[in-house]
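Q&A log
Question type: sequence-to-structure
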Amino acid sequence: MFRVIAEIFFYPFMVRAIVCGILISLCAAVMGVSLVLKRYSMIGDGLSHVGFGALAVATAFNWAPMAVSIPVVIIAAFFLLRLNENTRIKGDAAIALISTGALAIGILVVSLTTGVNIDIYNYMFGSILAIDKENLWLSVILCVVVIVLFVLFYNRIFAVTFDENFAKATQMRSGIYNMLIALLTAVTIVLGMRLMGALLISALIIFPALSSMRVFKNYKKVTICAAILAVVCFVIGIFLSYIIATPVGATVVVINIIAFIIFYIVGKLKK
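Response status: OK
Response body:
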């Protein structure tokens, strides 16, 4: 066992993947609690499709993928939030409207230009080999920013998550903090797509939060548990994927599913 661990840390790309994955898992978990409680759990799936569309277009025209996709996904998150609040198009319909449109545009542009190459495949399904030093440092910096902003505005995020009407009544500018949640979520999703893929990144947002809620009912305890669980599941998943030669993203998701079943049983026994 120790030989395998030493062997894993011998490869620079594995070290980059582990560091990047732990930070992204942490960010996804803490944001996931608010999104699940606000019934925005599928926003991660929608924004990941938008991110794939942006990355596909950037790749097709030889633009910098991250420089294009991050602002596009942030704009989509803001637009999705406003669309959900101010029109008759609500919830899952708004997410489906934006996500499928962006995905279709990305696929269409790729099919008319470069075709489906290895970069597009990696964005769709994820790849630990896609994380180079530049992406690593960008991920570290942005993940630290996400975590710091979440901690600084924890009380306000908590308020708009549980009772937005009360937050408005107390003169809290809830719209700004909803935008902050959307911003942090968008950044987390774009960073995680390289490792997990557009099809699986939303699992990092949903599963740790849902699992923690089976056992804990306090927001703070749920958030801490979700963060720890997300990191543990990712570490187990990436080590297991190396040992049995399976895709990292799919392995991490399966480990999260197993954790959810365990927490569900523990929650039932606790009651």
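Response note: Residues 12-37 form the longest helix (26 residues).
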